[in-house]
Specification:
Strand content: 15-25%
Number of strands: 8
Radius of gyration: 16 Å
Order of helices and strands: EHEHEHEHEHHEHEHEHH
CATH superfamily: Alpha/Beta hydrolase fold, catalytic domain
Number of helices: 10
CATH class: Alpha Beta
């Protein structure tokens, strides 16, 4: 077992239509390896707002930090500037480069036939249709799991996906990427493009868009591998 620095922390960042509970199956296994773990609550109101919320969460930490982001959360962890962040882990995540938007990356390749059609409500927020969780967000999850995901979902503002990204942290920090081969939300070709572009250490698995829920062991292993390289 790796000996991590006593004050090393993994900060987990959720994506759209979720909250920190999406990491439930990952938190305790990481803690059992001696890591501190916190989930950064992001408001999903704009990329700038979400990065500010992550920075606020980082203020609660001391010592080196490893960030892990799922889906839209990848854009958020990529936009941080804190020196204490030593590495980035992308879990089936979006990683726009400087001057790009999340929407551009999301629609880079044709959507999966079972991907939901999304449109904003009168307030500019997009909600996931309840059947979208079972059809695309976590199609390998149990019916109970997707029912809970639908019940606790939080909408994402169109501002999050339309805002231009700054120069990404993965340009100067080591990165790891879990490529979900069965992803129905983000085309696996797009995942591969982003992972290769950032020069990430890639782990490709036959998992759905939400492996931290449906295949958490692989997620834990990837994060631990990144932690051993950056936090020990």
């Amino acid at each position: 077992m790796a000996a991590f620095l006593h004050n090393a922390t993994v900060v987990l960042v959720h994506g759209a239509w979720a909250d920190g509970s999406c990491w439930n199956h990952v938190i305790v296994p990481l803690q059992r390896h001696g890591l501190k773990v916190i989930c950064a609550p992001i408001p999903l109101t704009s990329l700038t707002d979400d990065v500010a919320a992550l920075s606020g969460a980082l203020e609660r930490t001391s010592g080196p930090v490893l960030l892990a982001g799922h889906a839209y959360g990848g854009a958020v962890i990529g936009a941080v500037r804190e020196e204490k962040v030593k590495g980035l882990v992308f879990i089936a995540a979006l990683a726009p480069d400087e001057g790009e938007t999340v929407a551009q990356m999301f629609f880079r390749e044709p959507p999966h036939p079972k991907a939901p059609k999304l449109s904003p409500d009168p307030h500019g927020f997009m909600w996931m249709p309840d059947d979208g969780f079972a059809r695309a967000v976590a199609h390998n999850a149990s019916a109970d799991q997707t029912s809970i995901m639908a019940a606790i979902q939080r909408p994402i503002s169109t501002r999050c996906i339309e805002e231009v990204a700054p120069r990404p942290a993965w340009r100067g920090k080591p990165s790891w990427f879990l490529l979900a081969e069965e992803d129905r939300m983000i085309n696996p070709k797009t995942l591969g493009f982003m992972a290769n572009r950032m020069g990430a250490t890639v782990r490709s698995e036959a998992v759905d868009h939400s492996p931290m829920i449906t295949a958490p062991d692989g997620v834990v292993d990837l994060i631990l591998g990144a932690a051993r390289k950056t936090l020990s």
